[in-house]
Amino acid sequence: MEVKSNNITVERTKRSKIDQVDFDNLSFGSVFADHMLVCDYKNGEWGAPSVVPYQPIELEPSAKIFHYGQSIFEGMKAYKDDQGGVWLFRPEENQKRLNISAKRLAMPELPKEIFMEGLATLLQVDQEWIPQTKGSSLYIRPFMFASGNGFHASPADAYKFIIACAPSGPYFSGKVKVLIEERYSRAANGGVGFAKAGGNYAAQFYPTQLAVQKGYNQVIWTDDNTHEYIEEAGAMNIFVRINDTLITAPTNDRILDGITRKSILDIAADEGIETEVRKITVAEVINAAKDGSLKEMFGAGTAAVVSPISAFGYKEVDYNLPELDQSYAALLKKRITDIQYNRGDDKFGWRYRV
Ligand code: PLP
Ligand code: COI
Which domains does the chain possess? Predict the structure, then answer.
């Protein structure tokens, strides 16, 4: 056992699995790095974090996570540049958002040092797991859940914070086709849609399965009240380009405040692209698709990066988007990934060296 200068203990695995991984053919989030960071909350305080071999977690059947769903997570990536340097993208934003989610789910907030130093220590230990192949990165999954026991429907008295990592390739393997939802809702006003709560994803699996059966990859959620406004997709925020204007919905109680989304808005403005953050009606998008002014739609998120949408469905009709030689999606994807992989200028100061 080693003790790092920040007092984080490290127990290294005796059998690394790294030789079993094909780094040239990585799927998304399906093989896991050798180690994980673990930190426990009990008796009203967080204990000392430690890095241990990636392993199963022991919980009692009465652990409240199983019954009342107190579970939140974050999604981040570590990028390796051509010289082997390791970078994160705006990690403090993830740290802040984890605590926004924690508060809404009546879970304890995690001190910033545990998140930041725990993450840096874990990445030092598992740095070999960060792929250098183009388009790949180490997907990082910080998460927290109720490990305390009891059937009483109230917040648990113990929690676990873990960071596990998965060397990953792109989230989508091909063109992305989405279905604009007209019946189901992912989130409601006053609910937990803005939090990165596990239950938000569970809530969308069934409607998404129905959409997948019809040939779509993701659902674009509309507002729960009228289903007339475009909100976000299952794993990414949505941008629409009408003529030369790039539009995205304002965040609200129901929409995750995506870090990629806000970065894209800043980069687009920096490129001189006209941007609008405003409500977008489904009718407006359909009309624009019909009259040809709808030039692009794309999703933005950590896993999805910038994912162009090739077609969308609504009320049993499919609308195809044109293939552009010079799309905003391609330009913005290049700008953001150049920052993430340390290939280009970081004028916003978003890159974070590990
Ligand atoms: N919306 C949802 C529902 C998501 O799961 C994600 C992914 O994290 C996003 C949006 C994009 O957020 P970010 O750019 O912070 O990854
Ligand atoms: C991410 O982009 O990090 C997410 O959390 C989306 C997830 C559903 C894969």
Answer: 9-168 (3.30.470.10), 176-341 (3.20.10.10)
